[in-house]
Predict the structure.
Amino acid sequence: MEVLSNEMIRKMIDSASNHLQNNRKYINDLNIFPVPDGDTGTNMGMTFGAAAAETLLCDEDAGADQLLETLAKSSLRNARGNSGVILSQILRGLATGVQGHSQLGVEEIKAAAQMSRDTAYRAVMKPTEGTILTVVREIAEFAEKAASKHKKTVKFLQALLKAGKESLDRTPEILPVLKQAGVVDAGGMGIITLLEGAVLALEGKPVALEQGVENTVGAPKAQATVNDDIKFLYCTEFLIQKTKERQATQFKAAIQSKGDCMLVIEDDEIVKVHIHTNHPGFVIEQALKLGELTNLKIDNMKYQHEEKVRSDEDVVVERKKYGTVAVSAGAGLTEVFQSIGVDKVVEGGQTMNPSTQDLLDAVQKIPAEIVFILPNNKNIILAAEQVNDLTDQEVRVIPTKNIPQGVSAMLAFQEEASADENASAMEEMAGMVQCGQITFAARNSTIDGMKIKKNDIMGMIGSSITCLGKDVNQVAEELVHSMIHDESGMITVYYGADVKQEQAEALEKLLAENYEYMDVSLVYGGQPVYYYMIAVE
């Protein structure tokens, strides 16, 4: 097989998705840190699974470039956690590398590998070697060297898979913490699993979803009305009269992030353009750089924009200056955020990282010019940072890494302040909060020489395990003691769904006795995974 047919590409995408779903628990278990969180396998599985499902709905005559473009765009909107966002950027590179190619041969695959590497590295401010990035980079480097030796795509992809597995096996030698734990990088394993699933389809052994494996692509949301699903208001169509010397490549690149349903068809004299966008003016300005416009038509596909009609009354909600979105897990924590003025609360956290699309949906439901997002989890920050490019609203991400930071940041918000002043104050206030968390070990592990057994109670500050034990309250007391310093004045304890009120009140009483000079507050959070989240300010 010298080129991959569109039908085969579809089979490869489906097989890759199923292979990742079947192995997501195995990939989760590779995580070094023993905290029972959303995990790499789950996040990558949900990101790719949703994107694959949308891609397989493309028209039968969709070419390779169209299929991979759909895969990339959908993966970004459905990206969950850091691993999901990085995966979406890898797929974006794949799509960019094959742009303009309806079929894939060795050269197109090489270009795709190169662009995947480049795009992934650009997406991460401080790349860490020994991770998924290393595996993608070394696959690309192998592709550059080996492409000239291969004529058949099957053999070439098999060779890339072999090189990728060898790269994955080397990750413990590059990243000492992997070697200490005796595992390879989980994100790298996710990429290899996807590539292996695709190659198996090429070999005539496509992977099916195993019976009993939970489908992680997420159930489709009920559609209330057509208007609710429209994200881009204006159907914009026109022709560009151009000369042979001018090409539409830069034009396509300039507008592709400004909408969906984009169609740019070019010949020697004209370019036919169709796009759904919130910025028709921008699209037209870019088009004018190519030539004169004719047959211009702009239709508003939704007569109501951000000002909506509330309930059955014809009351228009005026667009305000600021809005806020917070990520929370637990009924009590949701009530806390609502009580301090958060407009929209997105359910999520360690056990289920919300996607970029989930956060985008929340932002667009707020009739505000500027929306602040409080991710409240370090694994959600990257997904939140993608939202600004997907809406005409200005989105500011306050990089809160836990719930107490999010609460403090929100308390610093002031309606009369400027956006920059609010962002600065919220980040400063969040940075003053020290957060400790009490949870259980999901697996046996060794961290910094500390041997951890499954179900041990762990006291953590940030990502560092500070203390271990068997009793939840005892570990919590020890953790608080390590957090107190001379300037500490307040302790707030948020107790979770698995802690009885009497047990939490006993901890509150103990802390009040030990630290008489400090204010101790007990709040029901109802959060999963963490018995307690403790803020010291």
The two ends are 64 Å apart (CA to CA). The CA atoms of residues 75 and 255 lie 19 Å apart. The longest strand covers residues 292-300. Residues 6-202 form a domain with the Serine Threonine Protein Phosphatase 5, Tetratricopeptide repeat fold (CATH 1.25.40.340).
